[in-house]
Design brief:
Length: about 210
């Protein structure tokens, strides 16, 4: 069964109140988008804010869209997240993977829409999750880029041919019009923000994604 990771990026205004709704929903994970205004042209939460809302009720996956992931990893490992994901396009990629492994945190690597999926193949023995971006990272509420499906299918086929069981996750523009194709293409985890949090009924939206 596909798992859902709810991005809380879109609920900044009522964060303390609405995060409780996410904690109490059927979501499998909470997806935390951390941005520094340099790696992507936007900022989001700081460590203080995250620490204040963190209550361990749901496992957390952290998506670092930052220029200096080492500094952020050293902060966020204190929360004992399920996954910390860094970007393939980051210059500190290999140092970040090592730091996460040394701290027994599961490693995710994310790739932007214009990065070739083949580049990730060599990392598969060393990582736990590939996070394929369905939009340019930086903002919630963008439209899904259709070619993402082909990237997922290609990665899934390569993994089947070579016996890898790294998880495949997709992030950005996920909604009930593409969830069926994403699941059939091989996604294990769907990250979704606005489709869930723009609604009053989070569970209804989560279940639309899960059961297509
Ligand atoms: C985009 C973020 C996503 C985003 C998802 O840079 O990494 O996690 O918040 O939000 P939606 O589902 O609204 O695209
Ligand atoms: Zn994200």
């Amino acid at each position: 069964m596909v798992k859902i990771s709810t991005s809380i990026l879109g609920i900044k205004s009522n964060l303390e109140q609405d995060i409780l709704k996410v904690y109490n929903s059927d979501t499998d994970y909470i997806h935390l988008d951390i941005m520094d205004g340099k790696f992507v042209p936007n900022t989001s939460f700081n460590y203080e804010e995250i620490n204040n809302i963190y209550n361990y009720k749901k496992p957390v996956d952290i998506h670092l869209m930052v220029e200096d992931p080492i500094k952020y990893i050293n902060q966020y490992i204190k929360l004992n997240p399920s996954y910390i994901t860094i970007h393939y396009e980051n210059q500190y990629l290999y140092d970040s993977i090592k730091l996460l492994k040394d701290n027994n945190i599961k490693v995710g690597v994310s790739i932007k829409p214009n990065t070739n999926i083949e580049l990730i193949y060599k990392l598969l023995p060393d990582i736990d999750l590939v996070l394929i971006m369905g939009v340019e990272p930086g903002f919630g509420g963008q439209e899904f880029i259709p070619n993402t499906i082909n990237k997922i299918k290609k990665l899934k086929q390569y993994m089947l041919n070579n016996n890898y069981n790294t998880l495949i996750s997709v992030d950005g523009g996920v909604n009930d019009t593409n969830s069926c194709d994403l699941i059939n293409a091989g996604c294990d985890i769907l990250v979704s923000g606005s489709f869930i949090t723009n609604s009053n009924d989070y569970n209804k939206q989560i279940n639309k994604l899960k059961y297509m």
